[in-house]
Automatic annotation (TrEMBL):
It holds the Pfam family LOR. InterPro entries: LOR, LOR_sf, Tubby-like_C. It comes from Intestinimonas butyriciproducens. Belongs to the LOR family. It comes from the Bacteria. This is YxjI.
């Protein structure tokens, strides 16, 4: 499954549209007024699926992940000098990024790739391509990319 993640150009808060390979909307993401980033995810019909909520008053960016109203876990940025490292405390998944903070892969505990994300250059807004072998992993993969993008924005790198 391939998803195209596009930030909307004219939006007061962070808002994104996520399309499949055929250009059909799969998810929409709406930023909400909140202390820290709060990104609500909806399906193509507008049904609420979950949210990514920044936890404030932390030294490094940290985000709680919710499917519906159920807490799934958190993703947080670790202190490093050269290569960005994010830890995810659910599903035994590992997030690996490149030093430019443009490309990421997510693997399970056995090293099997769950998702690969690449930032496309030369666009007015953030555009990412997500390659997800198993469609059942699409929502959590999207949440990871949203959290990383918001963390980059919070640190001034976005």
């Amino acid at each position: 499954m391939r998803l195209l993640f596009k930030q909307r150009f004219l939006s007061w808060f962070d808002s994104y549209d996520i399309y499949d390979e055929d250009g059909n909307t799969v998810f929409t993401v709406e930023g909400k007024l909140s202390w820290g980033h709060r990104l609500e995810i909806h399906d193509a019909q507008g049904a609420y699926l979950g949210r990514v909520q920044e936890e404030v008053l932390t030294l490094l960016p940290r985000f709680a992940l919710y499917v519906g109203e159920n807490y799934l876990g958190q993703i947080k940025k670790e202190f490093t000098f050269f290569k960005p490292v994010f830890t995810l405390d659910c599903n035994d998944w590992v997030v690996n990024g490149d030093w430019l903070e443009w490309d990421y892969s997510v693997t399970d505990g056995a090293g099997v790739e769950i998702m690969r994300c690449s930032k496309e250059l030369f666009h007015w807004t953030d555009v990412y391509t997500l390659d997800i072998p198993e469609p059942r992993n699409a929502l959590l993969s999207l949440m990871i990319v949203l959290a990383i993008d918001a963390a980059k924005c919070s640190s001034g790198n976005g």
